[in-house]
Design a protein that fits this description.
mainly beta
């Protein structure tokens, strides 16, 4: 008796999942996502490179064209711990589900611009991991602004959860960074690896 009820429950759950998936084939697409990442900063002439970590949230409004393809406009807020800086990426969001199933791999691309929200802190030529000699030879005023071109390709897996879809993925992000020293402005692009968790509706 218990086994019969369990089988009926499983079949009912699968049927409901298929109905929900069909209802989501076309129409409004929304996504809410949290991410955390590690940033490796290459410093010319330094034996060791400083590191940074970020946390961010983002929200996308868009349209699902088919069971496999959706597009939207995203906006987010990121915080970078080393330079105590907030930024706001605004971007075009493209996502493709590879399978029309309850569990499917996906590929995604976010492409846009990162806007600086605050000044962050000054770092007087001292990086984490630098020796005293390297610190003495570094510029006396050093400040980085996370702003400029923003690109974030990612891959991951989505799971149907009733009327929403949960996802987990790994992204390789490039944030434009404006680096200011006492004598020049230089643009750099620091590679970042980000772990992402989100829901789609």
């Amino acid at each position: 008796m218990i086994m019969k009820r369990l089988i009926i429950l499983i079949i009912t759950t699968i049927f409901c999942s298929l109905v929900v998936a069909s209802a989501q084939d076309k129409g409004y697409y929304g996504s809410l996502e949290a991410s955390g990442g590690y940033i490796y900063k290459f410093v010319p002439g330094a034996e060791t490179a400083p590191q940074d970590f970020m946390l961010g949230v983002s929200y996308v409004n868009g349209y699902r064209f088919s069971p496999h393809l959706a597009m939207g406009l995203g906006v987010g807020v990121n915080y970078y711990f080393d330079f105590q800086q907030f930024s706001a990426p605004v971007y075009l969001h493209l996502t493709a589900d590879l399978l029309k199933r309850d569990v499917t791999p996906y590929v995604r691309l976010n492409l846009g611009n990162n806007f600086q929200l605050n000044g962050g802190k000054y770092n007087y030529g001292i990086y984490d991991g630098m020796s005293e000699e390297e610190s003495a030879a570094a510029p006396m005023v050093h400040k980085e602004h996370y702003r400029g071109i923003f690109a974030e390709p990612s891959v991951g897996v989505k799971f149907n959860c009733g009327g929403t879809r949960a996802n987990v993925g790994l992204a390789y992000a490039v944030d434009g960074v404006l680096n200011r020293t006492t004598d020049a402005y230089r643009r750099r692009n620091y590679p970042q690896f980000r772990l992402k968790f989100g829901i789609e509706f």
